[in-house]
């Protein structure tokens, strides 16, 4: 559940999930610092080349506390101490979706890109709840506001609710 919540509640990219280390998880301040990414197996700076701090939701904090381990420095690690790969993250997220009743099978083939869709979900939920675009931009770590706007998909109900404001 931690990998899913890091994507949907913190807006992290899959590469950032893979590179997240415990030293960047501050339970006292309830902040995750997104400082690194795993690009093709190599750890380096984030895509935007800058660190960002994301406040933890209560459920993300609980999920991270529940998955604490001493297998190594990375948050997402297998029981045998190996770091997760892109495929492992996608497979786990697909399994969670399958258990929740989405789609018919938790296969890897169907799982491609699920983590990134959750990142879009993060931006969309924030937009529908009224978060300022600049705040969403910072949470998602975008350099350009136009990129952020592509992540802010509005549900049809949000549009209908906005039109109702004209009637008041």
Total count of helical runs of at least 4 residues: 9
| Gross geometry | globular
Main sheet overview: 3 strands, antiparallel
What distance lies between the first and last C-alpha atoms, to the nearest angstrom?
Answer: 42 Å
The Cα radius of gyration reads: 17 Å
Question: Low-confidence parts lasting 5 or more residues at pLDDT below 50?
Answer: 105-112
List keywords for this structure.
168 residues; mainly alpha; three-stranded antiparallel sheet; two-stranded antiparallel ribbon; 9 helices
Molecular structure report:
A hairpin with a 2-residue loop joins strand 3 and strand 4. The strands form 2 sheets. The protein has a 3-stranded antiparallel beta sheet, with no helix packed on it. It has a two-stranded antiparallel sheet with strand order 3-4. It is globular and about 60 Å long. It has 168 residues and is mainly α. Helices cover 49% and strands 11% of the residues. The termini are far apart.
